[in-house]
Amino acid sequence: MVLRSLQNRPLKLSSLCRMSVIGLVVSGLLGCSTTSRPSFDQLAQDAKTNYQTWSEVQQDALLANEITELVAIPELTQLVSHALSQNPGLQQTAIAVKIAYQQQGLTNSARLPQVSAGLTSENSEDNEISYKSDVTVSWELDLWQKLSDEVSAAEMDLAASSVNYQAAKDLLAANVMRSWLKINLQQQIIQIEEQRLESQEANELFILERYRSGLGDLEGLDTARTNSETTRSTLESFREDLTRERRTLALQLGYNANNKLIPISASYPEVIQPLASLPEQDLGRRPDLQAAYFTILAQQYRTDIAYKSLLPSISLTGSLTEIASNPSDALFGGSAWKLLSSITAPLFQGGKLRVDIEIAKLTTEKDYWAYQETLLTAVNEVDNALSNENSIKRQQQHLENAFDSAKRSSANYQVKYRQGLVNILDLLSVQQQAFDIQTQLVTAQYNRLANRIDLGLALGLGVSS
């Protein structure tokens, strides 16, 4: 509904006053229906305070601010930095954030006046050419802060995209560190299997020497050879696993695995255990929780927008027009101008606006429960990592004791076999057990170090923004 159109004179203040009064009455009625809405963002903030302490008590933990501080190896830190700059997947996420930033700028432009200009020419029947110039300025008044809410919602979307990008960076850094440790593990397992094979080949030679010396028979030779061939097969499998892990690391770094071999030592680096502080503080650092919170804020703004769609909108349009026989006069002559103001309000749309409101409210509630799920998952990840640290530590101690006993037993059986007190099957069984326990021990050490990286990620430790 157009209230008034004015030409060559200003818009009357009384018209705007009447528009404002109408809008204030409607907004007052809407306010009664919106004040009872729950504040899901506050509920989300309060949910974090329900966790006062972690389930496990730490020992020998150290304070760390970034996940790369857990493994203080310069070459590994350099690899993480390279991955952050060259990983194709991460770069796509970074570009997506830049796109979201540009889209936020488009939303913000809706609050500003829109200006357009044009110059046209027209031939009449007597071949006279006339020129028409026009400049139009339009502006929608943001009396109800609807446009501001749209900008705020876009800003929250951008914030969520930014922290999701940070989460992708943190996860990539952790994956590079895990791959580094996994290559350490594979190399140590290969060394153990090579030692096993060397021992088995020595057994074959010893059996042959005893037979040639007339001190024994060849009954155990086939058994020894069977074990040797089985170990050779296992070695081939482990070597392929190592090659695959190197390819995985190269993929994370954005390398061609066939063109560049990354040197990695065959021993574990020191990985510190990150110190867990208050749950509310640790959880507040997690990007996934921050993204879920920003999503709630964005949807609450959209719910406000849905409510304000019931309010009338007010817009002002001003235009300057000039018709002349040449372009100069058309552009710079004494233009006639007019100012148009309008107020429009929805009267009947089949209940669409009310449905939009309900959908927006339900979506906000759904986002709140998504936040709760993310929060519970985060707490569970921290508790599991803390519990694993203590459990794997005990496993490692037991395996170290078992390995010490297995080495002594293997040495004793070696002496007894040379003395003819035990048969070859007993010796092979004891040796096999010692090498198996050694493999379990280095695997437990890997699990403990990798778990510390998982703990750092769960506590919200990441890389520099």
From TrEMBL:
PROSITE patterns registered for this protein in UniProt: PROKAR_LIPOPROTEIN
GO molecular function, one term: efflux transmembrane transporter activity
SUPFAM superfamilies associated with the record: Outer membrane efflux proteins (OEP)
Keyword Iron: no
Alphabetically ordered keywords of this record: Lipoprotein
Family from the record: Belongs to the outer membrane factor (OMF) (TC 1.B.17) family.
Name this polypeptide is given: RND efflux system, outer membrane lipoprotein, NodT family protein
Organism: Shewanella sediminis (strain HAW-EB3)
